[in-house]
Design a protein that fits this description.
The complex is a heterodimer of chains A (about 400) and B (about 475). Chain A is an alpha/beta fold and about 400 residues long. Chain A is about 35% helix and about 20% strand. In chain B, the strands form five sheets. Chain B has a nine-stranded mixed β-sheet, with helices on both faces. Chain B is globular. The chains are: A alpha/beta (about 400), B alpha+beta (about 475).
Chain lengths: ~400, ~475
């Protein structure tokens, strides 16, 4: 492996729009609002941006599978812009690309924009592109993760009651967040009695389909002070790609995701983290479904495989726990516009590290983690952010 | 000696009690149930499953020819037999022929097969039959018809029942037909039709066959007579001089009349209880009649049939209404949601998608699916062999998916560890969703999948062992 980029890149500004059923906003409206919020936050002018990365799984309708969705939205032309698409890790991977480019010395500043407009498309949670006509017939997003949850429950005796506690926690956090899609608390009974979407997941075990956009501006750490004194530094990033067909891999145990284990190991090594449970103060992890969050606890090294339930049962991942997870409300309550999510998590961790998270503020965090896992555990991207 | 060397059948897991036809159309109905396809079944899949069971029983995949017989094949032009030969993983040298047009299509295939064996052109032959029978909604036939698949293998070795003789009789008689554009079978059912069509032809062919071989009625152990209505077979047998006890139950109360699939299905039932030396008389009607005289051999003791028809029929799901019965029959006619598949992809991937081949890595021993160019376990590129995967396995994990759009929600999606190795991701069918458990044993079965704008598409699913 090459050299570490620890402390070489700073996040100088973040922006995030209200996520939800944004019926009055199109793709470009959301992109512009998020990007300009980040420009404002970074005290930077759009023309000072050297390069940009667009994280989007489903480009603006009519814009094709290219970076023009960003360029046309912001009228940001004649700049190097790339579109990143890597399943649900799209947003974090776009961020990672921008960080790598700035760390390389090629650019001084870069914009990362994650945006999706799902409410003007049919087929919630249904795979519509990039699927094999035979092998994926019957596949849905919740169904793919449910396969892992079923096996995990069979192996470790995890129950739906414990899964429900993840939903209750993340809804409680989301209820404190004015930008979250679902700003309401739910009771364990409501979670357990909701209609089943894909067993063992009921409606409240699943994140919603959401419109949203988030942006971040990164720059060379040695130039950061020019924009903001209270910038945040990138400590480490990691990306891992494993099989996109875990259901055909005869050696896959379906008890967790190797991509997350590998991506976090890379990021921890870069950041010099050896005991993530102790060292990380706040984490935004990919809770697309309740079980995913429990598996993430283990795959991210917070606790041993098979014991993740303890962290939620003992309240240790709640806002007042020793390892608060998803203070934003998570995908579960904040919503999950795929490419926007990773950038939105960067926004949340930066906000937490700056101490600006208001009623959902975690006490005095120094180090925060951003994690996405996409496809049925195929792709994971992790970023560690911290105080200078 | 030429004869039957194996048999198999598949009656759809789903049935409809005849009382539901009465409720739907406000009329009197008969007793019992009819078998009824699930949304993913058609004549091809019924014929496949019967053939699969037959080949599993014989354990012999050296088949020279595959004949498919049906009056309801899913394609007017496109050989079901050729498709089934691929699905059964038979070689390209396998001779394939399709028989249709008459309820005698199965026995017509048998006659052709016996000739080919006699001439020594073929040595083993598989005949697969599948029928999906649609009566005019509201008419009696809707309630009388049934859906089923059946299959036999013919050969010279390991013969279970020797074919002693064949007889045939042609008659152009209007009692039941379907024009090229018709969705439903038309009939002129009456006592006249039964007596002049069914009875007259069967009696003529039965008499001729018995006389030719010098066999008296009391010498016959079982008479196999498919019944169009649950009654006519009885009167016909009596006319031929048989006692009620010699008559095989045509399962009209459990299945209905499954057209061309009936003769071999009932032959299998007759073989279950047969003893060496038993004479069996199989008679089949349809625009004339065919007769087959068989003598059971000692082989039946050596290789008893693996299951009984009554056990097979006892496992079932009863549709809760006539509407659901109709929805399952017509769903794909109205839901053509899959993109048209390119024949380039279909050709390129036939060995994995239809023949169910995978890759064996000689170096690490991992069997994998689909066919791979690099071993997923040890990343070796040099020691990979294409192999057929087993058709049995175990559920590794599953979900009951209510989000996926299907005519019968939830859809069970399962990860199946195939026996001997290989892992597949399949829809599960013919199962109560609440009954699925991790580690349950399953059998792979070929079913209709999402319908394309102009093609019928088929892929593997799994089902409980039964």
């Amino acid at each position: 492996m090459g050299t570490s980029l620890k402390d070489q890149v700073a996040v100088i500004g973040v922006g995030c729009i209200k996520f939800g059923d944004n019926f009055d906003q199109g793709y470009e409206d959301m992109a512009v609002e998020a990007a300009y919020a980040a420009f404002h936050d970074a005290r930077i002018a759009p023309e000072e941006i050297d390069a940009a990365w667009l994280g989007t799984y489903s480009p603006a309708q009519g814009h094709g599978k290219a970076a023009v969705s960003l360029g046309d939205a912001l009228r940001l032309y004649n700049k190097p812009i790339s579109r990143v698409e890597n399943f649900c890790a799209t947003g974090t991977d776009a961020f990672r690309h921008a960080v790598l480019a700035v760390a390389s010395g090629m650019y001084d500043t870069a914009l990362v924009l994650g945006v999706e407009k799902y409410k003007d498309r049919p087929g919630r949670g249904l795979a519509r592109e990039g699927v094999h006509p035979y092998y994926h017939d019957g596949s849905t997003a919740p169904g793919l993760f449910a396969l892992a949850a079923t096996r995990y429950m069979h192996e470790f005796g995890l129950t739906r009651e414990t899964l429900a506690k993840v939903a209750v926690k993340n809804h409680r956090n989301g209820a404190l967040n004015a930008k979250a899609h679902l700003q309401k608390e739910v009771t364990p009974e409501a979670v357990l009695t909701a209609p089943i979407v894909a067993y063992p997941f009921g409606l409240y075990d699943c994140c919603p389909t959401t419109d949203g956009a988030a942006a971040a501006v990164v720059c060379r750490a040695d130039l950061a002070k020019k924009y903001r004194a209270d910038h945040i530094l990138v400590k480490g990033v990691g990306l891992s790609v494993t099989s996109g067909r875990p259901f055909m891999d005869p050696n896959f145990d379906y008890l967790g995701f190797r991509a997350t284990q590998n991506a976090s190991a890379q990021a921890y090594a870069m950041a010099g983290i050896t005991d993530p449970l102790k060292e990380i103060d706040v984490a935004e992890v990919h809770d697309c479904f309740t079980w995913t969050e429990i598996s993430n606890y283990e795959d991210l090294g917070f606790i041993q495989k098979g014991e993740g339930a303890k962290l939620i049962e003992e309240g240790r991942t709640a806002l007042d726990g020793d390892i608060p997870v998803n203070p934003s409300g998570g995908l579960k309550s904040f919503g999950h516009p795929i490419g926007a999510s990773g950038v939105r998590m960067v926004y949340e961790i930066v906000t937490q590290l700056r101490g600006e998270a208001g009623s959902r503020q975690v006490p005095d965090p120094k180090l925060g983690l951003v994690h996405n896992v996409g496809g049925p555990g195929a792709v994971s991207c992790v970023a560690v952010l911290g105080q200078p | 000696m030429i004869g039957i060397t194996g048999c198999g059948y598949h009656v759809p897991f789903c049935r409809l009690e005849r009382t539901h036809f009465g409720q739907a159309w406000n009329r009197r109905v008969g007793k019992g149930e009819r078998s009824a396809i699930y949304f993913d079944e058609d004549a091809l899949t019924l014929g496949f499953e019967a053939a699969q069971r037959c080949l599993e029983y014989t354990g012999n995949k050296k088949i020279d020819a595959l004949f498919f017989a049906s009056t309801s094949a899913p394609f007017w032009q496109r050989s079901t037999a050729s498709f089934l030969a691929a699905a059964c993983d038979l070689s390209a040298a396998c001779e394939t022929s399709d028989f249709g047009g008459s309820l005698r299509s199965a026995t017509a295939a048998l006659r052709a097969g016996v000739d080919a064996l006699n001439s020594r052109r073929l040595s083993t032959l598989l005949i697969s039959v599948g029928e999906v029978r649609d009566g005019q909604p509201g008419e009696t036939e809707e309630e009388w018809f049934g859906d089923a698949g059946s299959a036999v293998t013919l050969g010279r070795e390991n013969v279970l029942a020797e074919i002693m003789g064949l007889a045939t009789h042609s008659s152009d008689f209007w009692d039941e037909w379907r024009r090229d554009g018709d969705d439903f079978i038309r009939t002129q059912a009456s006592r006249f039709s039964t007596e002049r069509g069914y009875q007259k032809n069967l009696v003529a062919v039965g008499k001729a066959l018995l006389e030719k071989h010098g066999v008296q009625a009391p010498q016959v152990a079982k008479v196999i007579l498919p019944s169009p209505d649950g009654r006519a077979h009885s009167a016909t047998a009596k006319k031929l001089g048989f006692q009620e006890a010699q008559l095989l139950d045509p399962c009209f109360g459990e299945i209905g009349a499954p057209g061309s699939a009936a003769p071999f299905l009932l032959l299998a039932a007759a073989l279950e209880g047969a003893n060496p030396g038993d004479l069996l008389l199989l008679l089949n009607y349809g625009d004339g009649a065919d007769g087959v005289l068989l003598r059971v051999t000692e082989e039946i003791r050596k290789r008893p049939l693996p299951s009984s028809l009554s056990d097979h029929l006892s496992e079932k799901r009863l549709y809760s209404s006539y509407q659901i019965f109709q929805k399952m029959r017509s769903y794909y006619k109205h839901h053509q949601e899959a993109a048209e598949l390119s024949n380039v992809l279909l050709e390129k991937e036939e060995s994995q998608n239809i023949r169910l081949h995978g890759t064996l890595c000689i170096r690490c021993g991992t069997r994998q699916y689909p066919i791979t160019q690099v071993c997923g376990a040890c990343q070796n590129r040099d020691s990979l062999h294409e192999i057929p995967l087993e058709h049995t396995g175990q559920i590794f994990t599953f979900t009951r998916d209510h989000l996926y759009v299907a005519p019968d929600s939830p859809t069970i999606m399962s990860v199946v560890d195939v026996d001997q190795g290989g892992r597949l991701y399949l829809q599960m069918t013919d199962v109560d969703p609440e009954d699925v458990r991790v580690e349950d044993p399953v059998v792979l079965t070929l079913r209709r999948r999402k319908e394309g704008p102009t093609m019928h598409n088929y892929y593997w699913k799994c089902r409980p062992v039964r």
